[in-house]
Amino acid sequence: MHTDLVAALDIGGTKIAGALVDGTGALLVRAQRPTPARESGETVMGAVADVLAELTASPLWGRTTAVGIGSAGPVDASAGTVSPVNVPGWRDFPLVERVRKAVGGLPVELVGDGVAMTAAEHWLGAARGYDNALCLVVSTGVGGGLVLGGKLHPGPSGNAGHIGHISVDLDGDLCPCGSRGCVERIASGPNIARRALQGGWQPGPDGDATAAAVAAAARAGHPVAIASFERAAQALAAGIAATATLVEIDIAVIGGGVAGAGEVLFAPLRRALRSYATLSFVQQLTVAPAVMGTDAGLVGAAAAATSVRPGGTAAAAALSG
Fold first, then answer.
1. Which end of the chain, N or C, is less packed with Cβ atoms under 10 Å?
2. What residues of the chain score a pLDDT lower than 50?
3. Which residues lie closer than 8 Å to 129 by C-beta, 6 or more apart?
4. 113-128: per-residue pLDDT in tens?
5. Does residue 318 sit in helix, strand or coil?
6. How far apart are CA 236 and CA 100, in angstroms?
């Protein structure tokens, strides 16, 4: 039984979470701070440092052999920098170097949050036992990651599998990324809600105009709400089918807030997938909801720290599960 631990950081626009993770994926010590997303880069780093200080103060810290970071993107793993869209103070911020200093020089591995979620679902979740998988996070944005040949495939910069910015509508709306007709521009929560509102759907007395409210309306039979989810499902299906055709995946796992819509999303998604994933080698593709929930980022950051690092260490053996 290995006793090595990995420190994990999950960095997003609303919270910075940290944990010490053991070889079974259990989170033994947790720390969290709100992300001061509108403040300076140094203020944001201060919140990260606070989380790390809480972890290093734990009596278990001595068993920690590496640090894994899953961050909102874009990230550049080769440069060790992050530029999260929703944290304007961080542009090419040298996060890896700063974290390495804060933890006394331990090895630090950085991946995008979609890749971290993928690592978690492959290790302990819905993609467990599959050698080739695509995992998607559908929420405010649409991110993702790939497992190929049984191994996490983050790519050189840590962003491989970023399905949200595959174009599925050649003459579609301009996406904030600069391209047109991106999956994210059609399938993200805010865009599902935007399309429903434009189509004449109106929020209830509580004024809730989120994708979750649109999902509730769709379940109640509102045609505009149903249509908005069908369009999102179609975009996701086209992106998943393109990915499956390119790299031969066996399963697509879908998490994030929008996946909480359940069959309102999954029924039209499976239907649309049958019309896009038509070649013999992609017809058997399975679609499943993610199961790791809000801890996926931390569990995945820990898994990524050990699966990505070349040569592997005792921690890799402990965490390869």
1. N
2. 1, 310-318, 320-321
3. none
4. 999 999 999 999 999 9
5. helix
6. 37
**Which residues 6+ apart lie within 8 Å of 238 measured at CB?**
166, 168, 183, 272, 276
Place of tokens 């890749």: 115
Structural domains in the chain, sorted by start: 5-112+294-319 (3.30.420.40), 126-291 (3.30.420.40)
What is the spatial distance between Cα 132 and Cα 148, in angstroms, rounded to a whole number? 5
Please give the C-alpha separations between residue 92 and each of 87, 193, 197, in angstroms, as whole numbers: 11, 32, 36
C-beta atoms surrounding 213 within 10 Å: 18
Pairing of strands 251-255, 286-289: parallel
Count of positions (residues) in the chain: 321
133-138 and 251-255 beta bridge pairing: parallel
- As given in the structure block, the two tokens for residue 181 are 């007709």
Q: List strand residue ranges (DSSP E) for the chain, in order.
A: 5-11, 15-21, 27-34, 64-71, 75-76, 81-82, 108-112, 133-138, 142-148, 151-152, 251-255, 286-289
Question: How much is the CA Rg of the chain, to the nearest whole Å?
Answer: 20
Q: What is the rounded distance in angstroms from the CA atom of residue 141 to the CA atom of residue 143?
A: 6
What the block records as the tokens of 153 is 């495939």
Hey, what amino acid is at 273?
L
Q: What is the pLDDT of residue 177?
A: 87
With tokens 């390869």, the residue in question is 320
